[in-house]
Amino acid sequence: MGQPVFATGELLWDLFPDSERLGGATFNFAAHLTRLGHDVLLSTGLGRDDRGDRAFDLARSLGVRTDFIERNGAPTGVVSVRLDRDGKPAFGLHRPAAYDRIEVGPLLEAGIAASRPRWFYFGTLHQFDSGIRTITNRLLGALPDAVRFYDVNLRPDAYTDELVLDLLSKAAVVKLSDEEADELSRMMGEQPGGIERFCRSVAGRFGSSTVCVTRGARGCALWHRGEYLEAPGYAITVADTVGAGDAFAAGLLHGLDSEWSPACTADFANRLGAIVASRRGAVPPWTLDEIYSLP
Known about the structure:
By secondary structure, the protein is of the alpha/beta class. 40% of the residues lie in helices and 23% in strands. The longest helix is centred in the C-terminal third of the chain and has 16 residues, at 262-277. The two termini are 28 Å apart. 45% of the residues are buried.
């Protein structure tokens, strides 16, 4: 579907009390976007260990391109996940991890640039490492025409105000949760004034074309090129919400890339996020028929 999407970030194992499941925000996003028909160039790292072997094979089986997945001597990333009674996760990161040790040498960089991606996706967790941040800045320079999509995804002890504000300044499209919007308001020195005011403030300060705030069961709010709307959510029985926000991000980019109306884009992203929240795991199977069958 058109030009590729370049995504840089984490690929790791979610360690639940009863199982291990492949995840990581960037990988989840890439897997869902691939299922929507996009060519996704995933740049990340895996260890030369059993978890790395299994992750590589599973990613490939899900159709995710593995051309830019580097193998290195650090352990494959893991995160401990505990769910509350509403299926909302708490994460415990384990570092060092292989996704923090990628190098993206000249050959890989040339391959990425030659693919001429239309989109460049990044999040906060991966950029918390100063070496990764340097690589990302280099790639941003090598891909000046790519639309920059920043999925904020704040994790405890894995961000600073300076980092988040810098990443916001680089992005055209910003996606975040309502809780993260409160945190960004604090960083920006803004007084609470509602989601619409927040979206307009971010767009005005950082030059964003699109600001989207997810609101859980209440759906989302979307500011896009001067138009603001709130799209209602869908009533589902939550299995767990791990990966639901990443699926939402994939749905949001899909709608923007397809040049749908803001209302259709927001509704589709809500539907995809709801389907994933209704199932266990970050990348459960789904079909477009199931997405559109939500009442």
